[in-house]
Amino acid sequence: MTDVLVLNGPNLGRLGTREPDVYGALDAPTLAATIATWGSELGLAVEVRQTDDEATLVGWLHAAVDARQDVVLNPAAFTHYSYALRDAVAQVTRDGLRLVEVHLTNPASRERFRHTSVVAGVATGTIAGFGADSYRLALQALAGRPPA
Ligand code: DQA
Q1: Pocket, ligand 1, Cβ cutoff 6 A
Q2: Residue among 105, 110, 127, 133 whose CB has most ligand 1 atoms within 8 A, to mutate
C-alpha cells in the first residue's frame, strides 16, 4: 500500500536535459528512484508519478483523497495559474490529508510570474529551493505522523 504519492507536473519528465543550469543534472528516473529510497528510509511506501497533463494530475489528486494518501506535489508551471489544480489540492487538505507543495528551485527568486502560487494557500506547507532535497524534506515532514 502506498503511503505517500509524489506527483510531478509538466516538463519535470525532462529533468536532466531541461535547463540543467536551473534544475540540475539529475534525470527524472534517477530522481524518482532517489525519492523512493528516501521514502523507504523514512518507513514510507512512496509512489512517484509524472504527467504533463492537467486533467491527469487532477484525477490523481482525487484518487489520493479516495485512497487516503498524503501527497508531495510539484505542480511545476501549473503552480502559477491552475485553479483546477488548486481546487483539487483543496479537496486533499480539507479532507484531513496533508499535501506538501515542493519546488526544486525557489520560484520567489525567479521571474515575476513565478512569484504567485495558486496552490500554496491550500497546501499544508511548501518547501522550495533545495533541489532534489526539497522532496526529501517534504517526505520528512510527512513521516512519523499517522495519516488523518
Ligand atoms: C518548478 C518551478 C516552476 O516555476 C517551473 O515552472 C517548473 C519547476 C520547480 O520545481 O522549481 O517547472 O516547479
Answers
A1: 11, 74, 76-77, 79, 103-105, 107, 114
A2: 105
Q: Which helix (H) or strand (E) holds 38?
A: helix 28-41
CATH of the domain at 18: 3.40.50.9100
Question: How far, in Å, CA of 146 to CA of 102, rounded?
Answer: 21
Q: What is the pLDDT of residues 83-139, one digit of tens each?
A: 999 999 999 999 999 999 999 999 999 999 999 999 999 999 999 999 999 999 999
Question: Residue 43: which domain range?
Answer: 2-144
Query: pTM of whole model > 0.85?
Result: yes
Task: List strands edge to edge, sheet with 99-103.
Answer: 46-50, 4-8, 70-74, 99-103, 125-128
Report the distance separating Cα 144 and Cα 35, nearest Å: 17
Tens-place pLDDT, residues 1-38: 789 999 999 999 999 999 999 999 999 999 999 999 99
Ligand 1: distance of its center to the CA of 144 in Å?
Answer: 28
Domain count, the chain: 1
Q: Is 60 exceeded by the pLDDT of residue 147?
A: no
